[in-house]
Amino acid sequence: MRGPDEDLALLTEAARKVGPIALSFWKAEPEAWEKPDDAGPVTEADLAVNDALHSTLMGARPSYGWLSEESEADASRLDARRCFIIDPIDGTRAFIAGQAGFAHSLAVAEGHRIIAAVVHLPAMDLTFTAHADGPALLNGQPIRPSGAGIGGARVLTYKSATDPEHWKGGRVPPFRREFRPSLAWRLCLVAEGRFDAALSVRHVWEWDIAAGSLIAERAGAIATDRHGQPMRFNSPRAMIDGMVVAGPRLHRDMRVAMT
């Protein structure tokens, strides 16, 4: 069985290969439409990137499972020892709007844990990487999360996460809420200490957070579901019950304050 570093090298190669594909559609008014069941928008660029990633990754690792936002569900992935977990373009709304904050999110799970991860933002020339036995890197340089506590922390989340119902006694902590379009990028921004935490009180899709969660953990942050439990990937539903990603001190503070 290949080491996590070998899978990381493959993911990195694949991410850099598809970056130009995405950029060829970016700001070029790609065809876009809404998915069924209010699942959000998708564009011809998402599908082109997905096809290229599938060809590259499964061509190199045909025994691996495949879980992607833009592919039909395939239950055989649950029996594979390792599985790719892919979001071809995370932040599709930003992509459609011509904003630079979209990412390719690529991960490999072994069993239920992530062992290799890449989040690549081609319009910004940013590549976050990590594998299970090494450090988290941004463009080859080590990154670390902040040591902030909850007072005044900059937390990447959506507005409804600050509703009093999600916090003990209805007391919302005095953090500053901010937002970025790509969920994978949010986790990486926490990993590099530019923001202090990323929070979701709603279920999140595995492909949105698989890569970013490992990058955050290898940087020194703690990444759990909203209840403080370890994240388990390549599950039948492909969903995680919310998330709290932050440095150890802030993660503890947030978990104490949450319902």
From TrEMBL:
InterPro entries: Inositol_monophosphatase-like, Inositol_monophosphatase_CS
Keyword vocabulary terms for this entry: Magnesium, Metal-binding
UniProt entry tagged with the keyword Magnesium: yes
Gene3D superfamilies: 3.40.190.80, Fructose-1,6-Bisphosphatase, subunit A, domain 1
Listed PANTHER family: INOSITOL MONOPHOSPHATASE, INOSITOL-1-MONOPHOSPHATASE-RELATED
Family the entry assigns: Belongs to the inositol monophosphatase superfamily.
Protein name as it appears in the record: 3'(2'),5'-bisphosphate nucleotidase CysQ
Organism: Paracoccus aerius
